[in-house]
Amino acid sequence: MRGLLRILACGATAVLAGCVTDAGSIRSGSWLIDQKPDRITGTPVAGAVTRTWGATNSNNPAIRNALLQLTCFENRPIAKIAFDFRIGSDRNTSLGYRFDDKPGHDSVESRVLLGYQVIIIEDAAALQQFVDDLRGSNRLFVRIRSLNAGNSAVEFKVDGSETAIEAAYAACPLSPATSRRTT
């Protein structure tokens, strides 16, 4: 009986947590766009997130969750990809990705954050290429190679990205110099 009560309590907590997360947010395709103001500054938080289940790693047969986030951090645009497992360290990890049938990109300028579960694209040229490829795409396949953490892979649904991009980078637009590039 106690086990059943614990399961029901956990289920109720998960449902409520989902409601809290979505409060003040809007959907655009696969994206959840944060519309809440920052409680410290009062300015919009700015960010768009899409999540998926299906991330894999060659060192562990379990299938896990992953998250793709477009946001501003310290007034700079970034793309963040987070996993539920270690993906490598900054010195020995390589990011590659491909949107739909567009040409893929390997050895993308990126860095792994401390904790070894998050990789970000913050280099202006690399981020601009990522965003240019994201526009109008439906799927994103990400592959991370690491000498110490094996190979990680995940596929995200990214439909509805135009609204997500505009909302996420409203407070920190992509660099005008890189925005003029032709694709």
Unreliable stretches, pLDDT < 50, 5 or more residues?
Answer: 3-21, 177-183
Rounded to the nearest angstrom, the radius of gyration is 17 Å
Distinct helical segment count: 4
What is the CATH topology assignment?
A: Immunoglobulin-like
CATH class: Mainly Beta
Helix fraction? 10-25%
Brief write-up:
The protein is an alpha+beta fold and 183 residues long. Helix content is 24%, strand content 40%.
Description:
By secondary structure, this protein is an alpha+beta fold. The chain has a single domain (about 25-175), classed as Invasion associated locus B (IalB) protein (Immunoglobulin-like, Sandwich). The chain has four helices and eleven strands; from the N terminus they run H-E-E-E-E-E-E-E-E-E-H-E-E-H-H. The protein has helices at about 1-20, 125-135, 160-170, 175-180, and strands spanning about 25-30, 30-35, 45-55, 60-75, 75-85, 95-100, 105-110, 110, 120, 140-145, 150-155. Strands 1, 2, 3, 4, 5, 6, 7, 8, 9, 10 and 11 form an eleven-stranded antiparallel sheet that branches. A hairpin with a 2-residue loop joins strand 4 (about 60-75) and strand 5. The longest helix has 21 residues, at about 1-20. The N and C termini lie far apart (about 60 Å).
Topology readout:
Elements: H1 2-22, E1 25-28, E2 31-34, E3 47-57, E4 60-73, E5 76-83, E6 93-99, E7 105-108, E8 111-112, E9 118-121, H2 124-134, E10 139-146, E11 150-157, H3 161-168, H4 176-179
Antiparallel strand pairs: 1-2, 2-3, 3-4, 3-11, 4-5, 5-9, 6-7, 6-10, 8-9, 10-11
